[in-house]
TrEMBL record:
Keyword Iron: no
Species: Catenaria anguillulae PL171
Protein name: Emp24/gp25L/p24 family/GOLD-domain-containing protein
Keywords from the UniProt entry: Membrane, Signal, Transmembrane, Transmembrane helix
Transmembrane segments: 197-216
GOLD domain ranges (all copies): 45-139
Taxonomic lineage: Eukaryota, Fungi, Fungi incertae sedis, Blastocladiomycota, Blastocladiomycetes
GO CC list: membrane
Length: 229
């Protein structure tokens, strides 16, 4: 027996959409977080740069571990503190300046486009304190960094993936806008340099022509004075 047209319609209706499957796969493969770890010495900052478009949300999740000589391994020390400083390089405006515990997170939104310097250091005190600290840091850039799902809000996994894709699309659009602004500034700077080069070449030609005319006139008067002409 062949299935009826209504049965085939029901089968098509219950089949998953290929577009939705592709979106979910892209969301699974895409990563908006970068994880790293590095070592800190007492009262010495570790800084790194992030190029951020304007109004980009950034969240950093960190966890510090201190070297323990008796156990010969890194362990958590709740008395350890971490100093966090975020500064916009061009305007030198301080975005974040806080003292946090040995583990936690920090949030900020880029008020200006461009390079942002993120610095972390230990805020331990003591003249002879030579502890060695290993710091784990995860940086999440984009709208997903400032978005927290309400526990009372019940959403399915597909809805969560779609929401995440929307945030990523907004981030990509903002990044493209920032790249267009950078290209426009670079093009304007290149045009300005080209105009100055052309102007300088014209000035050099004028100066060279005046120097040649003066030299010819001087030689003519010299030859006439010597009665060589």
């Amino acid at each position: 027996m062949r299935p009826s047209s209504s049965s085939r319609a029901n089968l098509r209706r219950h089949q998953p959409s290929w577009a939705l499957v592709v979106l979910i796969l892209v969301a699974c493969l895409a990563h908006s977080a970068r994880a790293l770890h590095f070592y800190l010495e007492d009262n010495k900052e570790k800084c790194f740069m992030e190029v951020l478009p304007q109004d980009t949300a950034v969240m950093g999740v960190y966890r510090a571990e201190e070297w323990s000589a008796p156990t010969q391994q890194y362990i958590e020390n709740l008395s350890l503190g971490i100093q966090i400083n975020v500064e916009h390089v061009e305007t030198q405006s301080v975005t974040v300046s806080k003292k946090g515990p040995s583990f936690g997170k920090f949030l900020f939104t880029a008020a200006h486009s461009g390079d942002h310097k993120i610095c972390l250091s230990t805020n331990t005190s003591g003249w002879f304190n030579t502890s060695k600290v290993r710091l784990h840091l995860d940086i999440i850039i984009g709208d997903a960094a400032g978005t927290e799902v309400d526990p009372s809000e019940r959403i399915s996994d597909i809805q969560f993936r779609i929401r995440d894709l929307i945030h990523r699309a907004v981030d990509i659009r903002r990044e493209q806008q920032y790249q267009r602004e950078q290209e426009r500034e670079f093009r304007e700077f290149t045009d300005l340099v080209n105009r100055r080069v052309v102007l300088w070449s014209i000035v050099q030609m004028i100066v060279l022509g005046l120097a040649c005319a003066w030299q010819l006139r001087h030689l003519r008067s010299f030859f006439m004075a010597k009665k060589l002409v």
